[in-house]
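Justification of computing resources. Each target in the renewal requires a structure prediction run like the one illustrated here; the chain below, 78 residues long, is used simply to show the kind of job we budget for.
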Amino acid sequence: MEILLWLVPPAVVTVLAMGWVSWLGREGRGEVDPDEAERRLARAMERPSPVVRRPSASVDQERSTGVAVRRQRGRRAS
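Resulting structure tokens:
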């Protein structure tokens, strides 16, 4: 039994951390007024979305097969 005594401090810290997190996450904390939430959403939707650049189709790249192949350096296959 003495060999398990080293587990007591981590267990106590874990239980305290779980209690603290559950207290922080309880209902009623950080609630936003529905009207304010609607205004925030409207403002966010009015902003222009960022332009996402896609690689051009003219670049020909070999499709990866997932197999690594070493290139031969200056040697000829016999």
